Amino acid sequence: MKLKALGIIAATGLAVLSLAACSTAPGGNSSASKGTAIGDNFKLGYDLELSGAVAAYGNAGKKGADLAVDEINKAGGINGKQIKVISKDNKSDNVEAATVASNLINNDKVNAIIGSMTSGAVKSMTPNVTKGAVPLVTPGGTDDTLTESKGKVNEFIFRSTFQDSYQGKVLANYTADKLNAKKVVLYYDNSSDYAKGIAKSFEKTYKGKIVDKVTFQSGDKDFQEHYLKLNLKILMQL
User: Fold this and answer.
1) Which CATH superfamily hosts domain 2-159?
2) How far apart are CA 95 and CA 120, in angstroms?
3) Where is the Leucine-binding protein domain (predicted)?
4) Cβ partners under 8 Å of residue 37, min gap 6
5) Would 2-159 and 164-237 be classified into the same CATH topology?
């Protein structure tokens, strides 16, 4: 069931990519002056975290994309052209993600890219993707500014997941309306843009009282201080 869901998400992303790639390729109707011409095959690049800290996300995304590609190819491909996948590992590293994107665009001449799974990696890839006018769909990049920043739309960046602001809002409303929680303590990873984005949105939306905000850093091993602080806050509210 999980793999099927990933496949549906990936298929949606591929549909967006195919439309965007057709419009940005030479001869299309886009105002972009670049883009990769579609040849005998539709060349799709994966810029995913297949090893490293978030490899679990990257490999799950790859399985979903592979499933979608297989189904689309069996159904006749995109405008009669089969999808050819060029998969590369960005090793869960933002700098490597940018390098992989550049290689996929300039060396492999892909028509579109799927990746990456984290917002930080997508941000690092954006300049290369924009310069090459190659559309990208991120399955996991949730930062609001990926697709629009300072009132300007990033025309080559698409996403198939929810934004941080939406997720934080849903969590805040659920906490207040369904759990009937009047007071909460926010406890989140201060080294994660994803966690900070959701916490910010939660804080903005939540109807109750936020007693305190306690943070940790990815890689921390001793949580005793956090545990004592949280318990103290709870006791003070009784």
Assistant:
1) Response regulator (3.40.50.2300)
2) 10
3) 43-229
4) 25, 26, 27
5) yes
Q: Exposed e or buried b for every residue in 34-44, given b needs 16+ CB within 10 A?
A: ebbebeeebbb
Query: Angle 193-205/164-177 helices, nearest 10 degrees?
Result: 50
Q: Which residues contact 64 (CB under 8 A, 6 or more apart)?
A: 3, 5, 6, 7, 9, 10, 139
Nearest alpha carbon to residue 62 among 27, 88, 36, 100 = 88
Instruction: Write out the E strands in the chain.
Output: 42-48, 83-89, 112-115, 136-138, 148-149, 152-153, 157-159, 183-189, 209-216
Greatest distance between any 2 Cα atoms in the chain = 69
Query: What digits encode the pLDDT tens for the residues 186-233?
Result: 999 998 889 999 999 999 999 999 988 989 988 888 888 877 777 766
| Tens-digit pLDDT profile for residues 161-170 | 999 999 999 9
- The CATH architecture that domain 164-237 belongs to is 3-Layer(aba) Sandwich (3.40)
> Residues 65, 67, 73, 76: what is their CA dihedral angle, to the nearest 10 degrees?
-110
Taking the model in full, what pTM does it have? 0.79
